[in-house]
Amino acid sequence: MVEDSLPEELCIQILSRLPAECLVRFRCVCKTWFNLISSAPFFIDHLTHQSTDMNTNKYLVFNHDNFYSLRVVDESENTSLEINFRAELVVYGSCNGLVCLSHESVEMNSDIYLWNPVIRKIKKLPVPSLVFDVSPDMVDFGDDELVTSVYVCFGYEDDDYKVVMVGVVEGVCSVGIYSLGNNCWSVVDDLENDDDDLDPFRLHDLVSRDSRFVNGAAYFKTSDDADNDNVIVCFDMSRKVIREIGLPDEIHEIDSYTMDVYGESLAVLTVSVYANGLGCLSISLLSDESVPSWEKIFVIDLSWRMNINPRVPVRFINKGKVLIKVGVKLFVCNIETQKLVELKGEGMTHNIRDCLGESLALLGEDNVDVRAMSYQRR
């Protein structure tokens, strides 16, 4: 018997280092392996090994030409998994092997999906029931003067995937948090404005597709660049407050920086261009203080002459690397050594949305064709 040939502890150590796609097949070897691979502790062990794997070089690539082509490109193996689906669904973030998908314009009752592209599993989330404390004359959703906005943030915390939905009606917020582990939504009560200067209508200028969830807080860019007054709006679930966070001094435009997670902190990455065409990459972390401030941890010289405006960094890659796009070229920058390597390969010159790890999340879900979901619209 296979299960008797190796000690269980050694078997776990070996299996947890294997690719997720292999483990899906290995569940058919025997009942013991099926139960082991399907268990929650093994999922966490496998995710831990994958997140520290030096050979994780997978990227989500998509192009918009009447449809999205979302490809998982593995640089080390020069292979790709391609799944096409129509433009009704777009990516609202990826984290630890899962991708959050929804419609182009998210509404209160929009379908939201979590997709594991490596093992080809998808889960449709239950519809959240957000509650708004608004006056009776604001409940007529047919009123043209009533402004309704919905924003989505996706992340991983406390060994669980979380989806945060923020609904805004005339400056009044309602926030729901979905937990994959519990498969349900919870409404955050008594979320208060912690900043007297926060303009309620700024909450209608958030950007869902560059949001980050870290340490119990959802961070959104703002799209209103009037007077170069871009800020990050933070929904802190643990303290139950909403607040604005000013950006580092060198950031003046929404398109000049990227938010990401570095360790357990929110980071902003920005490329600055000098008059002579040279530039640098700056990485700053948000300090966890009562008065938020930024600590610059790296300034990396980009030692080539840039004849065109650079695009902002895409995001961090495992083991202290940053993916940077300049024009149509992509570079991987090692933060410690500051060595730059051009990233080449099929699909690499397209728009890379995120780096993608491997995960066994959604292993118990049914196989669903992504293309079939694109026709579902409420």
From TrEMBL:
It comes from Daucus carota subsp. sativus. Residues 1-46 form the F-box domain. The lineage of its organism: Eukaryota, Viridiplantae, Streptophyta, Embryophyta, Tracheophyta. InterPro entries: F-box-assoc_dom_typ3, F-box-assoc_interact_dom, F-box-like_dom_sf, F-box_dom, SCF_F-box_component. Pfam families: F-box, FBA_3. This is F-box domain-containing protein.
